[in-house]
Hints:
Number of helices: 13
Low-confidence stretches: 1-19
Structural class: alpha/beta
Distance between the termini: 27 Å
CATH topology of the largest domain: Rossmann fold
Oligomer: single chain
Number of strands: 7
Mean pLDDT: 84
Radius of gyration: 19 Å
Helix content: 40-55%
Amino acid sequence: MDLWRRRRSAWPCLFFCLEAFSVELNTLASDASLALLGSTGSIGESTLAVARKIENLSIFALTANTNAARLLAQCLEFNPRYAVLVDSAGADQLAKALRAAGCNTELLVGPEALDQVAADAEVDMVMAAIVGAAGLASTLAAATAGKRLLLANKEALVMTGDILMDAARHNGSTLLPIDSEHNAIFQCLPTVKDGISASQFTFVEKIVLTASGGPFLDTPLDQFASITPAQACAHPVWSMGSKISVDSATMMNKGL
């Protein structure tokens, strides 16, 4: 239990620890490259916290929607081949800042650039950490390109289902669930493709999803009608983005 608590504190919003990442890397070449889609969000930041601990992992691409300042700081630390800024409004300023800092990272702009880096031939793994429909196209691009897809965007599976799974099967892509509920289920299942070890069990009859206790665990039912978005975002354990926090507080993430 103490180890579980330490991992929760170290990797917020990510049931994905250093050991699991290392096992995945051991099935690849000695040096592996990662395209991190959504690097400035909570899952992206947690992924980079893990990446700092792994010597044979190189960051091929980092992407952000609008947070150019955080993307710049990440580029200066990890020196990726590409940086993608979806919103063009801050692109010129970011490009100038990269040049001024002597950073060789090439800046790509627009949503199509997400698909480009996700499918690049030099990429071994893609972390799909862009929330909602915005991350759908790049997730499909990674699966179609046969990448090892670390899937934190469960909405992609909800929206596309067989389309995404068929793309993965037909192109040799391996999906590893990173989202907390999906990864918890994965850890209960038998060993799957490529010898990725999930658990020691050979058969699972039933899986029950529970909640860890959100901001409204002890809130009386007669007060639910007056709950505000700010209260929903004040999770007592996790530090997450606003959408994920609200989905967690309303239990929508369990439904997804």
